Structure formats: C-alpha cells, structure tokens
Amino acid sequence: MNIENAQIQMRKGILEFCILHIISRGEVYATNMLEELTAAHMMVVEGTLYPILTRLKNAGLVEYKWVESPSGPPRKYYSLTPTGFESLDKLRETWHELATSTNQIINHTQLTGQS
Amino acid sequence: MNIENAQIQMRKGILEFCILHIISRGEVYATNMLEELTAAHMMVVEGTLYPILTRLKNAGLVEYKWVESPSGPPRKYYSLTPTGFESLDKLRETWHELATSTNQIINHTQLTGQS
DNA sequence: CCTAGTACCTTGTATAACAGAGTACCTTCT
DNA sequence: AGAAGGTACTCTGTTATACAAGGTACTAGG
Asked: Interface of chain A against chain B, CB under 8 Å?
C-alpha cells in the first residue's frame, strides 16, 4: 500500500532525468525510450511518457522531427536542444548531491544504530 | 522553471525514505528531523513534514509518544514499528536498484556520447 | 497579565503520474 | 477497393503529494 507508493515516488523524481539522458544519446522516439526504460527496470507506461515529452518540449529542452517509419505511422524523433543539455547538467549535479545526501543519512544509521 | 521542478521532484521521492531512516536511528521529534534533513541539504518545511509523519503513522510504520519538554510544549517522539523496519528494508532495496539503474543510464550516455 | 518562543496541526492550491479510451496512419489479405 | 490488425501518438479524469500560509496550544519570563 503505502510502501509501493513510496517506491513509485522514488522513481517519479528520476524519470525526467533519465528520459533527458536517453534523448541526449541520440535521436529516439517514444517506443525506443520505453524499451530502454523498461530494460533499466523503470516501469513506465505510455500515459506517463507522452505527457513528459510534451512538457519537455514546451519547456524548450527537447525538439523533434517527424520521420517516416518503414512500417506504420510516422514517428517523432526527439533530440536535446542546447538548453536541454544545460538542464541535463544541472540535473546530473542534483542527482549526485542527492545520492550523496541520501547515502550520508543511510550510513549514519548503521553507525549509530549499533547500541 | 522546469528544471527546478524536476529537482524538487527528485527530492520528493526520497523524502519518506530519509525520514524513515532518521526515525530508525532512535527517538526523535519533528524539529530534530528538520534539522537533520536541512543538514543533509534536503530542503523540507514543516508543512511537508507533518503530513508525512501523519501518513506514516496511519500506515502503521511509525508510532509516537508524548514527552514533556524542558521548555515549551510537549513533543511527539517518533519511533519505527516492526512494520516500519520492514518497509525501510524494502525502500532501501528500491533505492539501490534505482541508483543502479540510473547510473547505468548515465554511464551509457558517456560511452556512446563520444563520437 | 502580556509577550515571545516552541511545537504541532490544517486548509487550499498546483503539479504530476497513471489508467484507459481514442485518433490516425500504414500494411496485408481478401 | 474494403476490412482487419498493428504501430504511434494524444487526451481526459482521478488520485496523491509537496508546499505556502495561517492557526492553535503550551511554557517561561517580564
């Protein structure tokens, strides 16, 4: 119940960061991203991914171009804008700080947890 | 704008986890926690912490007892229940998995990012 | 009394993920 | 042609959450 929720919350915060990272590697479209995120055990579904992509585009962090598919409807291939790369750097920094802070709190536990 | 939001989102997900950790170390009351979280650079305010504590209590993860203060109103000293410790273990596991997945995605970038 | 400080609580608002249903395009088969 | 099935993108409604801001209550000191 509550714990699953907390686990979901953890993932949430990192999602945008991971998505930006994936796009930064090269042009991809939504289904590619879903595959990568699933492979990395970040359970994400369409209904979550698409709104994020729209948000990132409106914020000017990503852009896309339509590309014909060899089979099926055309695809939106996303890439990072210069602003997007800057933002990614900031988020990377935040991630490291956060990981450090968290590990600090966690390790603290084990030290003082011993009576 | 958008980036600050993403940074806030990252912190959010880890908050409950950190709070449980802090409580697991020994009995503390809200102001103690705020100090610790601030020291670890997790910006949290009262209006965020109290609802979380209430939620954790309703979920049966923490319990508290009133203790008189040497100066001022009485304090609620929180401690973890057995269920709380179990949940903490699960969250710790989730945290490690998530950190691993994220680092996997990040490192992937740097490898393929080199042209 | 009255003020100041500490501790806890509550209400309203904005944001975000998710489920689920929907639209549009392309290919293949009859 | 027309129908069926798959792929890709979109939208709406629900729920959960952090945060800001204001509020209540208890204690100590002038």
From this structure: 1-3, 6-7, 9-14, 16-18, 21-22, 24-26, 36, 40-42, 55-56, 59, 61, 87, 90-92, 94-95, 97-99, 101-102, 104-106, 108-109, 112-113
CATH 1.10.10.10 fits B2-113, yes or no: yes
Provide the CB-side half-sphere exposure for B74 (13 A, CA): 8
Residue B88 confidence class, pLDDT cut points 50, 70, 90: very high
Q: Domain limits of chain A?
A: 2-113
- pLDDT at A19 (0 to 100): 94
pTM: 0.85
A92-95 own/partner pairs: CB under 8 Å, 24+ apart: A92/A17, A92/B106, A94/B6, A94/B7, A94/B10, A95/A14, A95/A17, A95/B10, A95/B102, A95/B106
CA distances to A57, A91, B46, B64, B78 from B30, rounded to whole Å, are 40, 29, 8, 11, 8
B107 CA vs C9 C1’ separation (Å): 45
Please tell me whether the interface predicted TM-score (ipTM) of this complex is above 0.95.
no
Chain B residues inside the 8 Å CB shell of A6: 13, 16-17, 87, 91
